[in-house]
Every structure is written in structure tokens, then in C-alpha cells.
User: Fold this.
Amino acid sequence: MKKMYLIITILLILVVCLIFSFKEKTYNISSSNGLWYIYDSNLENIENNMNEITESNDEFLWYVLSDFSIEDTEYKDMLNALVARIRMSYYELTQNKDFYTNSNAILNYRNKDNITEKELKILTDDMSRDQEMSLLKNLSNFKISDDEEVSERFKKMVLIYDDVSKNELFTKDNPTYEELLSRKIIETNILKDLSDFLVMEYYRLK
Assistant:
């Protein structure tokens, strides 16, 4: 009887061990919820800046710079191209369903307390395919202005993300949830700085 009891006990311990070995690892992410305040604050600043200096049409928010005519037509076109890139990046950051399907997957976790290891892997893969901000670097491949100083200042601004994206935070293979969220916060901050730059150039040249 004692031998049978011992066998059953051992079997039960083995079953429990197997159950725990197959249980998926889960990470608590509730401590990161405060970081979303920075995210939202940056987006609000972008909205305020762009609403101030652009006009929209029936199809696009922030379509072109409002009542903006300068002699340097090439630079005017580049500033309006930057308006378009900021708009599309903003759409991605806010999960605008009219232009993107399943964009910015990390937004799906902003009100959650936990994320499983499998979900984190899927999120990492989704975000590695999210390259909206990298579109900014393409702007520097075109002629910007005959004014060399103006061209260099513009290039310096739009290439910021290209430089930042080479940082380990953006390139590491197995980022944590907090690191993935930090990437998006950095993106919103860069977009905010670009919208600040647009406001400055708008009033400088208008």
C-alpha cells in the first residue's frame, strides 16, 4: 500500500512538473503604462503644429502648407513632401484604419497588464516590418534647394531617424516590451521635432 502511495505521489509530481514546464512565460507590462503619457503628449504636439500651418482636403488631413508661396519652389515642394511624410507616419502611429491595416501593433497592448512570450515575439516581428519613419530618409535623395545652407539644415533634420534607427535599441534581436514601446516613443518625439521644424520654416519664410 505504501509503495502504491509513493508511486502515485511521484506520478502526481511529474504531472505537475510537466504542466508548469509547458506553461507559457508571461511578462508583467503594467509598470510601462505611464510611458504612454509621453507618447500621447508627443502626438498632441504634432497635431497642434500641423493644424496650425497646414490645410486639409476631403481626402487627406494636413494636405499642404497653408497659404504658403515662396520663390524657392523646390524647397517649398520639399517642405510639402515632409508634410506628407509626417501625415502618413502619424496615421500609422494612431492606427488609422483608412490607410493602414493592423498598423502599430503595440497600441493593442497599451491597456493590458501582461504579455505572453509568444505575443511578444509576434509583436517584435510586426514592428520589424513597420518602416514608416524610414521613409523620411528618402527625402534627402532629391534636390532640396539651391541654397546649400538650407539644404544641409533640411537633410540634418530628416536623417535623424536614420541615425537613431542604427542604435542597439532598434536593432537588438530579442527586445523587451519596454524597449519596443521606447522605440515608438522615440519615433513620436522625432516626428514632433520635425513638425516643430516645419513651423519654424513656415514662419521664417512666409
